Amino acid sequence: NGVLPRAGGSPSDTDSDSHCNSDVGNGGIHYQRLTPGRPMSVLFLADGRRSRVLGVNRQIVHHLGRQPFVFRGCIGPVPVQPVVRDALHGIVDALTADFGLRGLNGLDFLLDGKRLAVLELNPRLPASIALYPDALPGGLIRAHLAASLDGRLPAGGGDGNGAVVSAGQVARASTVRGVEVVFAREHHRIDATAAAALARRPWCHDLPQHGSSVPPAAPICTVSAAGGTETEVQALLRQRRRQIPFLLEQYDESSCTVSPEPGVAGQHVLECQ
Asked: What's the rounded Cα separation, in Å, for the pair 240 and 232?
């Protein structure tokens, strides 16, 4: 069994193996064997010769229509076994030296126990940078520019799980963050009320414009969450993702109530009848 990643696309741009016979050989598709494991990624900073791992993340991947593996978001940092961490350090060091990588990069891989299979190198700013707003003094973009333009990596060592601990900075290792793209299940027309409702929520990002039209299977927005564990963040993302259809289809202040969001101080849940 396998999938058909399209040339020039991401691993999520795939069709199921039921379409292999008609598509293979047309020049735009190659065949990729299905491999067991959890979809993961590692975010790292490189200066062309050396690399610094910032964190390991679990990717949120689900089917969407006939595409079986669609990237929907990520959660991190997540802990990995020392043998996996050491292997990742070796892989990103080798890739950095071989390709002269600079700045922030991402590496997608599958993790099956202690075994990992590399899927894809992303020599660009990956989506997982949203999970590490305070990983480095001055922020990741400043570090990205310094590494890209000047070949400089920030001083500091690792925290044992891949996240950078810079000199004079206290690592916030207890904070886990997540982001998830919300895809439309049906056609939506974003009116002024819906657009304003989305904009009022600090955990809503990549917002659609007032008057825009969102077709089925297209992204509506991105939701974010932070917590103490991967499980807590996953639950918050699921809760917030499920609120979006209410905001678009049933938002009416006369029939909605606002209640505190469980376990998150200062955040609230919109419940529509």
From this structure: 12
Question: Which CATH number applies to 176-252?
Answer: 3.90.600
CATH superfamily, domain 10-16+37-160, is ATP-grasp fold, B domain (3.30.470.20)
pLDDT tens track for 41-82: 999 999 999 999 999 999 999 888 878 888 999 999 999 999
Q: Which of 146, 221, 180, 201 is nearest to 76 (CA)?
A: 180
Between CA 16 and CA 2 the distance in angstroms is 7
**Per-residue pLDDT reduced to its tens digit, 155-209:** 864 443 444 433 333 344 569 999 999 999 999 889 888 899 999 999 999 999 9
- Over range 216-237, report the average pLDDT: 96
> In terms of DSSP H, where are the helices of the chain?
20-23, 82-99, 140-150, 192-199, 230-245
How is the chain split among helix, strand and coil, in percent rounded to 5? 25, 35, 40
Beta-carbon contacts of residue 130 (< 8 Å; ≥ 6 apart): 177, 179, 224
With left for phi above 0 and alpha for psi between -120 and 50, is residue 211 left, alpha or beta? left
103/114 Cα distance (integer angstroms): 28
